[in-house]
Amino acid sequence: MLDTAGHVDHLIIGGGAMGLAAAWQLARRGERVHLIEQFGPHHTLGASHGSTRNLNDAYREEFFLDLFDEAFGLWRSLEAETTAPLLGLHGLVTQGDPEIIEATYDALRARTHDVALLDPAEAEARWAGMRFRGPVLLSADAGIVYAARALDALAAAAQRDGARIERESRVLSISPSARGVTVEVQAADGSRRTLTAPSAIVAAGAWSRPLLEGIIDLPRLRVTEEHPAHYAPRDPSHIWPSFNHLFAGEELAALGGNVYGMPSPGEGIKVGLHLVGHEVDPDARTLRASDEVRERRRAHVAEWFPGLDPDSGDEISCTYTSTESERFVLDRVGPLTIAAGFSGQGFKFTPAIGRVLADAATGASLPPAEFRIASHAQTA
Fold first, then answer.
1. Which of 80, 57, 49, 65 has the alpha carbon at shortest distance from 264?
2. Tens digit of each residue's pLDDT (9 = 90 or more) over 55-77
3. Chain centroid to CA 354: how far?
4. Are 1 and 336 in contact (CB under 8 A)?
5. Helix, strand, coil in percent for the chain, rounding step 5
6. CB-CB contact of 132 with 123 (8 Å)
7. DSSP letter, residue 370
8. Based on the domain organization, do 25 and 118 belong to the same domain?
9. Is 34 in the same domain as 75?
10. pTM > 0.85: yes or no
């Protein structure tokens, strides 16, 4: 049956962080929005689940910092509409390659972020559960996003402004035309229907490429299964910041990826290796780290975090969808607006990306050049 009831302006395919943020931004402008998500709320099969994400401002690139600064303000605006805090500003410490640390400090200081460079002794006096080497960058106004709360807040705000959120329905196909977009949707009971709208946003995470195959020539999107873990502190009196270990050269090659982490209240201290997992089909995951990755993570915790029990890791699983450059894919092609390639670093930018997607979908403006498809083709 052809379902055109409701006269929708925009379909949104994918109800993770980015799809919900786009729904929020569009609905608050008075746009009529219908979001379709294949799973239920707070499912664990994608990239948006979990209690916390790093609110990490340790970037040198202006285009990432532009998004971060905008997102910070929008998180605060969304937070004002909720009953619980969405941000925890306990600070972020970044260490590793001295050139990277100093360049990042310079970039943040130029934007008047509250940053300081500490020596290892100063850092260890503050955070006794951690070991430090070389210059340590402290970002005082960073920390965590309470991710699960944030998803609920985005959904609630979008629905208050009239957005419809349909869960446990899977988009089977997308057909753009000169008049708009038609999608075929399968509900949980197996029934199928079609929906049409002048515009659609595809924010489908690990399912982006199969949905858009033959429709848009996307840059390569690598889907991997990643496995951070929560570790138990040895001393509950220790104070923990969020953190990055940004290495280079042989040290990075030996570890396989940089390291990130943060306190997750009630769960422990999350520690993860960035982008070290195997490529997977998102519908056929193992949900288990390889023994090699697990041992590398455990050894890193033992070396750098004396305040954690390295044998206490409680593993979690998520997907990453990444481009070769690790820059996002944000673009509009005909009636389709594309959002992909965020995994491992996208969540903190969520509300700003929602604004970018809303601008693109309504024709107000195109996304920044660094994220558009053509920029990826030039660097592939």
1. 49
2. 999 999 999 999 999 999 999 99
3. 12
4. no
5. 30, 30, 40
6. yes
7. G
8. no
9. yes
10. yes
